[in-house]
Amino acid sequence: MRFFSDNAAPVCQPVLDAMLAANTLDTAYDGDRWSKALDGAMSDLFETQVACLWVPTGTAANALALAAMVPPHGATICHAEAHIQVDECGAPEFFTHGAKLLLVEGHGAKLTPAALAETLGGIRDDVHQVQPHAVSITNATEYGRVYTPVEVAAIAEVIRPRRLGLHMDGARFANAVAHLGCSPAEVTWRAGVDALSFGFVKNGGMGAEALVFFKPELAAATRYRRKRAGHFLSKGRFLAAQILAMLEGDVWLDNARAANAGAQLLAQAAGERLVQPVEANEVFLRLTADEAAGLRAQGFDFYDWGVGEARLVTAWDQGAEIVAPLAQAIAAL
Amino acid sequence: MRFFSDNAAPVCQPVLDAMLAANTLDTAYDGDRWSKALDGAMSDLFETQVACLWVPTGTAANALALAAMVPPHGATICHAEAHIQVDECGAPEFFTHGAKLLLVEGHGAKLTPAALAETLGGIRDDVHQVQPHAVSITNATEYGRVYTPVEVAAIAEVIRPRRLGLHMDGARFANAVAHLGCSPAEVTWRAGVDALSFGFVKNGGMGAEALVFFKPELAAATRYRRKRAGHFLSKGRFLAAQILAMLEGDVWLDNARAANAGAQLLAQAAGERLVQPVEANEVFLRLTADEAAGLRAQGFDFYDWGVGEARLVTAWDQGAEIVAPLAQAIAAL
Amino acid sequence: MRFFSDNAAPVCQPVLDAMLAANTLDTAYDGDRWSKALDGAMSDLFETQVACLWVPTGTAANALALAAMVPPHGATICHAEAHIQVDECGAPEFFTHGAKLLLVEGHGAKLTPAALAETLGGIRDDVHQVQPHAVSITNATEYGRVYTPVEVAAIAEVIRPRRLGLHMDGARFANAVAHLGCSPAEVTWRAGVDALSFGFVKNGGMGAEALVFFKPELAAATRYRRKRAGHFLSKGRFLAAQILAMLEGDVWLDNARAANAGAQLLAQAAGERLVQPVEANEVFLRLTADEAAGLRAQGFDFYDWGVGEARLVTAWDQGAEIVAPLAQAIAAL
Amino acid sequence: MRFFSDNAAPVCQPVLDAMLAANTLDTAYDGDRWSKALDGAMSDLFETQVACLWVPTGTAANALALAAMVPPHGATICHAEAHIQVDECGAPEFFTHGAKLLLVEGHGAKLTPAALAETLGGIRDDVHQVQPHAVSITNATEYGRVYTPVEVAAIAEVIRPRRLGLHMDGARFANAVAHLGCSPAEVTWRAGVDALSFGFVKNGGMGAEALVFFKPELAAATRYRRKRAGHFLSKGRFLAAQILAMLEGDVWLDNARAANAGAQLLAQAAGERLVQPVEANEVFLRLTADEAAGLRAQGFDFYDWGVGEARLVTAWDQGAEIVAPLAQAIAAL
């Protein structure tokens, strides 16, 4: 059983159905009716006028979002363990043409307003240093932690005087919203977020993510950058259809709730072993090499996380019932 | 009826079937068995050891190929009407970090050895001028013209003394091979091609193209560049499956033959109106504004091409029978 | 005797004197009083508020100017033989992060409003094509031709509706103004120029050029780009001092007048041989290989210009008297 | 009296004399006899065949050196307080097209082999992470600390198995060598250094630094990059002349010894106040706000360094005698 990544999960049926339905004659690129429906569907979901672009990967969404806010001679502030820093092979630097990532530490891969303020305070306002133009936070974080609307707003408050943009890497945005029980608007633009990488691939999609601009004017140049980066698929209707299928009937929320529920079951079994509170669909726990080997011998596949720790990830198709065997195996350690 | 672009055609059934079949649990990125099978399948097809990377778009394939051969301070020589110059919003410049495209004229968007030699001769070998590191040709060209193996070899001959790389944009490679009736090897590496963007999307695929390196060592850095550019899809198995499905049983050739046959029927109907010989699946013909309006009134959709000309493109699903009504309408003009 | 380039000429005495005078204790970078005086001195010269940055080379000035106006996914329109296209090893592409140069033909390396309008008309307003954001003209041109204020204004008129920036490469701006007899303002901002690379090195300076922004707000980001490009010299006072010395007492104009006068003498001697009207300090003339060899045997050094033509360049230290021997030698051919 | 930066010091007489002597007719760019003599002079100094390029700034030298060793999808490991990270406005990212700087902590801005090994060990060898291609160390460091040949060799030892390049930022290389009393070869290529930014501007030069490649083959592409970056001055003879003048008769060493001696006198006066051992020409000491104000009231100018500390920098013209008043003032605190 797979617990190493939600990236490896299958595609859910509504997405497959929508793709098959999209296989009818239509115009190329984003001239089709599915692509044209995206802005409206996302604006409805977020209760405000947004501009939404489909892209095939979260890396593309993140890097395009940053490029829309940060000039080549600028910088983005993010956590030292942010996906954009450690897992995208320099995509932000590629798309922004070399803007720096300025790194901040913090438990659970979360930025705190205090740490952010300290970093900002250490940057001289002269031409010898790159000046920050944006902050990027991940929600849920790389450690499965969730920023509340209040926490996001506190970060926005710190950067407002310097007019920095605020980007949210939402590769697991659905898991965060499912955990929070708030509206998508509450934890994004109402809290100060300017651009969201809204992930679907980890949550049952196949190859489509939504880049949502809450300041729609940021989208204009991004449309050129998307094409220039080779991310403007000629049969874009198949990407738009995926996203629309996920939004319809709240498939995105249902899928995330299932994954979160699976993680909660594992968390209960892990008890004192937990390294991080479990708020989304990732469980970090202490596990000796022997214990890890034991679980693997029972057919459970997952990543070690440094020495003596492990990471378990549940996906949309791994609700509480499905993960019960692993929960029992952990409890039995 | 659609004749404006093969980009807008539907996805063929073998590709859809393969995608559905790939929707089983497997590892992420390119660790799955479909992705792992690509090198072998392509090496078989090309009768030599190649390295093959899937990417979602032809623009990504082209730009990555050039980045593998041309440093930022170098240049690629291509036709003035090459897709990489006029239709990719500067993707080659983005991926190569600013390498120039040096443009050469030529009928039918074809480079001739003579024109190429003249361009090379005009470049001073000093640090004030960017030095060419590669030549890119499109086969079939943007005007539906086909380079024969002999013609490709003649170009390779011109650039060999300067050790330039040779890239082939094969967005319609299948149509070219179908026209030539030669082996894929003959018109590529045996004629001197180092890297091929092997297109499937215009030919019945959904969102997968193959970047084929005949010098496999060029692939190593490209794997990083692909990730960095956001083109390393986490569910890459769905891209690999598309390509494998197209290769199996020569679907790629059958589809291209159908499209070519449709174009031939239109060519016969167009007769003296033809502006270019029809060798692949594009037909360029003289058409007055009134004639164009007349065809459109009958439900045929296509692009004007400058003043007094038009472009008709047939796709894999538009064989001779399907295009017969348009052929008759043209003949009746 | 040197006629191959004004780049090779010595540095004039006022510049040397000013540099020696600047060798006193002062602050670093551009905090010194010479650097601080630049904006004022240039604003006086141009009769309007400008922002002026020193840089060590014309290539840096040109590339920074374009980077201030053109995004990476945009383009600059220039002449096919513009220095920025053929002699800067891709500096514009480096500084703009890959923005294209779209090339226009024209006699004497001059852009005409008609050719410019035709180029603009051929660019589709969609995301597949890079959109022009600026035009760059060289005054005096690479063929020693001069744009009049009326000609510059006509170009500005063409691009105004599309809000393109207008850059003037003034490596030989002094020679152009000396020829025109107009005010510097007249042929720049009053005619629609937004940024000028004001050259001093070819005209008696050592290693300092002025990048003059007539829209001072363009300078803000450029200050970061200058540092980032390694062009923010810590002893910048020696660059500022050079420029101020050239402005003081109109040394820049006197030097240019001398060079132009030398060129005029050569032009008179060349008579029917001239390929281009001589308006600045460059003379292009027909010369057989034997004739060229003959002149070289007499000690005159210059460049061949293709087959059967040659280029003679006079510098600030080569007024009419100095060039008389060459003029006589040409007349005697 | 200036103690805030050696950048602000005047130019020494031998450099001025050499520049005046270079003001004779010669060819442009690096075709002159001074530029041509650089390789030989540096090869003599370093007792091995090197390739040497002049550039106007240390930032350009550093960034070009890194671009010669690190691809855009790679990384350079350096200290978190390295000049290339905190004081060059992203020049390394600009010249390498976005390669990351991976930061390591260490006292006195020195990298230790252990810290380096730990950083290397934490980088997964997969396409999701940028792979290090070079290490950059500063000698003397930003805190006036000096790497010995043994220390440099220990760093080289760590990175040899991964074939990383080793760059030395030698903005104050002269001060380091003067302190070490070793040969320039010993602390560079013999210890494993591949490229050196050899600084002269802080040490009595005007605007010329030497980029020295101990692997001369690295210079070839760099010559194009230098031009492309606008750093190929047309009157390059004035840069070459500066460097040659500094080398002749060991002016570079004499100047550095004087600056170091000045710093030693200050160090003795500072005694227990010292925060760092004084090994070059920088003195970091504890100083209360009142004490700092007191010194400034006596006419001594310097930078605060965080809270309760200050940085004093001596220059080539500030030997022991010149700095005696400040030493006395410190002792009297």
SSE layout and pairings?
4 copies of one chain form a homotetramer.
Chain A: H1 13-21, H2 33-46, E1 51-55, H3 58-69, E2 74-79, H4 83-86, H5 91-96, E3 100-104, H6 113-121, E4 131-138, H7 149-159, E5 165-170, H8 173-180, E6 195-198, E7 209-213, H9 219-228, H10 237-247, H11 251-270, E8 282-286, H12 289-297, E9 303-304, E10 309-313, H13 320-331
Parallel strand pairs in A: 2-3, 2-4, 4-5, 5-6
Antiparallel strand pairs in A: 1-7, 6-7, 8-10, 9-10
Describe the structure in brief.
Chain A has 333 residues and is α/β, with parallel strands linked by helices.
N-to-C order of helices and strands of chain A: HHEHEHHEHEHEHEEHHHEHEEH
Number of structural units classed as domains of chain A: 2
Oligomer: homotetramer
Return the CATH architecture of the largest domain in chain A.
Answer: 3-Layer(aba) Sandwich
On the 0-100 scale, what is the average pLDDT of chain A? 97
What proportion of the residues of chain A form beta strands (DSSP E)? Answer: 15-25%
If strands are numbered along the chain, what order do they take across the biggest sheet of chain A?
1-7-6-5-4-2-3
Largest interface, C-beta closer than 8 angstroms, per-chain residues: C-D, 47 and 46 residues
Uncertain regions spanning at least 5 consecutive residues of chain A: none
What is the alpha-carbon Rg of chain A in Å? 20 Å
Report, as a whole number of angstroms, the end-to-end distance of chain A.
Answer: 18 Å
Structure class of chain A? alpha/beta
Would you report the number of β strands of chain A?
Answer: 10
The CATH superfamily of the largest domain in chain A bears the name Type I PLP-dependent aspartate aminotransferase-like (Major domain)
Keywords (chains A, B, C, D): Lyase, Pyridoxal phosphate
Family (chains A, B, C, D): Belongs to the threonine aldolase family.
Subunit structure (chains A, B, C, D): Homotetramer.
Cofactor (chains A, B, C, D): pyridoxal 5'-phosphate
